[in-house]
Amino acid sequence: MDSYVFASLALTAIAFTAIWLIHVPLQDAGLVDYYWGPGFAVIGWVGLGFGADLSTSKLVFLGAVTLWSTRLAAQLIARHLKLDGEDGRYAAMRRAGGPGWWWHSLFKVFLLQAFILWAVATPVHTVVAAPADSSFSIAGWIGLSIFATGFLIEAMADWQMHRHRVAVGSGKATFAGGLWAYSRHPNYFGDILVWFGLAIAAYDLSGSLIAFLGPVLLALVIRFVSLPLTEQHLTASRADYAAYAAVTSALVPLLRGGSPRADPAE
User: Fold this and answer.
1) pLDDT of residue 174
2) pTM (2 decimals)?
3) What is the 3-state secondary structure (H, E, C) of 33-55?
4) In the chain, is it the N or the C terminus that has fewer CB atoms within a 10 Å radius of its CB?
5) Residue-range definition of the domain harbouring residue 69
6) Closest CA to 39 of 106, 115, 102
7) Are 47 and 8 in contact (CB under 8 A)?
8) pLDDT tens readout for residues 88-143
9) Would residue 179 count as lying in a domain?
10) What local confidence, expressed as pLDDT, does residue 171 receive?
11) Is 134 in contact with 57 (CB distance < 8 Å)?
């Protein structure tokens, strides 16, 4: 399956390059988010075209990945379409990058995310390469249970944030209700659970520890790249965010460290 692994990298790079070409005249790098979820499912299903052995458990696994990727894509696309212009994070990069940003963004945003997606997808790679007679044991079903828990947390967090934005608009009020009362980024936490659950299920089918490399990379990227960038943007754009952050866990849901603030949408 070595040819499949390299082919999936090439396919992912081509897909992100195509999105980059579309983004250039529009000056909207937020389009990159459209493929983030579906890219994982594409890697899995394309693997079947490279002679991968099939099993019921493999199909269940790829079905779970497809379910997650479809929900995430729908959520990110809907959020992007409601924005007034480019996402604030990418807009800041564009301002800092100057006139040449359109070209540098190919490497610093699009191809970088292509490589990260491909690397995070190690659970998918190992499942595609697993033997035809592979099937879930108790460990695999535990992994899928962790996946389901993370999926529900991520979906609930996104839905609660959507309701907040509908209620108060996309202004500067920080949402501090629901799951967001216990974590500043419950959606990131749910995402990490999703991929570690998938890694356990993938290891159960393949016996390969490589399955865990992607989720570990994802957790590191979230903790040291995505989370700090998001925090920086929110702190700069919302007057009440610093007070919210002072009493709310950054990632893992915990009870508040201070007095809860009344949520404007409640």
Assistant:
1) 92
2) 0.90
3) HHHHHHHHHHHHHHHHCCCCCCC
4) C
5) 2-247
6) 115
7) yes
8) 889 989 999 999 999 999 999 999 999 999 999 999 999 999 998 899 999 999 99
9) yes
10) 59
11) yes
Tokens of 126: 């190992």
Q: Structurally, how many domains does the chain consist of? A: 1
What are 30-45's pLDDT values in tens digits?
Answer: 999 999 999 999 999 9
Q: How many angstroms separate the CA atoms of 105 and 40, rounded?
A: 22
Contact call for residues 194 and 137 (beta carbons, < 8 A)? no
- Report how far residue 54's alpha carbon sits from residue 59's, in angstroms, rounded to the nearest whole number: 7
Q: Is 260 within a domain?
A: no
Residue 106 located in a structural domain? yes
DSSP states of 208-254 as a string?
-GGGGHHHHHHHHHIIIIIHHHHHHHHHHH-TTHHHHHHHS-SSS--
What pLDDT is attached to residue 2?
Answer: 66
- DSSP symbol at 201: H
Residues in the chain, pLDDT under 50: 259-266
Length of the chain: 266
Longest Cα–Cα distance in the chain: 58
Q: Are 43 and 125 within 8 A, CB to CB? A: yes
> What pLDDT score was predicted for residue 261?
47
Q: Does residue 264 sit within a domain?
A: no
